[in-house]
Specification:
The complex is a heterodimer of chains A (about 110) and B (about 120). Chain A is an all-beta fold and about 110 residues long. Helix content of chain A is about 0%, strand content about 50%. Chain B is built from no helices and eleven strands. In chain B, strand 4 and strand 5 (about 45-50) form a beta hairpin. The termini of chain B are far apart. Classes of the chains: A mainly beta (about 110), B mainly beta (about 120). The interface of A and B includes residues 97 and 98 of A.
Chain lengths: ~110, ~120
């Protein structure tokens, strides 16, 4: 079946460090890929997305590139801030008919001053 | 502004009582979803609905019930049959009819505690 695998957390970084959160997927079709962010006590917010191979999604300094050859969608940010501390979810959605989002288990990011 | 509203934000329930969580959206989205999230855990799908008057069980539907009488509303009832109802509940909605390159819009959640 379709699935998303994320790196285990927590990821602990100092402010201004470089961030990578790995995400790989398995899909029976051709998916769109998403990153969501969840701040403490809140719902999920769409951070960025990419709908086809080699697309790069970007938002708020975060980037992720849809790599079909490696079935990956790694999240990166050049310089993290304390306010980036949150849980990050990678997800996919197939582009045929009605398809539900398939989520990874989430990766907690902790950024210290 | 369009959005999805969950209420209340915090809810306390005595054991043996049913409780209903509200979810309303004004995004004109077709599909709606309910997820459960336990501390430090990912999302688990409870129920979803593609259209009005139709809904399907997700992965953990036991002890829950839903209705979809209006496009805008998808209330979730946590019944006394749910053994461990204390959790954070998230409602979401999405455009559909083939536009699946869109993701979901989430509400801000309801934290249910059984006392």
């Amino acid at each position: 079946g379709d699935s998303v695998t994320q790196m285990e957390g927590p990821v602990t970084l100092s402010e201004e460090a470089f961030l990578t959160i790995n995400c790989t997927y398995t899909a029976t079709g051709y998916p769109s890929l998403f990153w969501y962010v969840q701040y403490p006590g809140e719902g999920l917010q769409l951070l960025l997305k990419a709908t086809k191979a080699d697309d790069k999604g970007s938002n708020k300094g975060f980037e992720a590139t849809y790599r079909k050859e490696t079935t990956s969608f790694h999240l990166e940010k050049g310089s993290v801030q304390v306010s980036d501390s949150a849980v990050y979810f990678c997800a996919l959605r197939l582009n045929t008919g009605f398809q539900k989002l398939v989520f990874g288990t989430g990766t907690r990011l902790l950024v210290s001053p | 502004d369009g959005g999805i509203t969950q209420s209340p934000k915090y809810l306390f329930r005595k054991e043996g009582q049913n409780v209903t969580l509200s979810c309303e959206q004004n995004l004109n989205h077709d599909a709606m979803y309910w997820y459960r999230q336990d501390p430090g855990q990912g999302l688990r799908l409870i129920y979803y609905s593609q259209i009005v008057n139709d809904f399907q069980k997700g992965d953990i539907a036991e002890g829950y019930s839903v209705s979809r009488e209006k496009k805008e509303s998808f209330p979730l009832t946590v019944t006394s049959a749910q053994k461990n109802p204390t959790a954070f509940y998230l409602c979401a909605s999405s455009i559909d009819r083939g536009r699946t390159n869109y993701g979901y819009t989430f509400g801000s959640g309801t934290r249910l505690t059984v006392v």
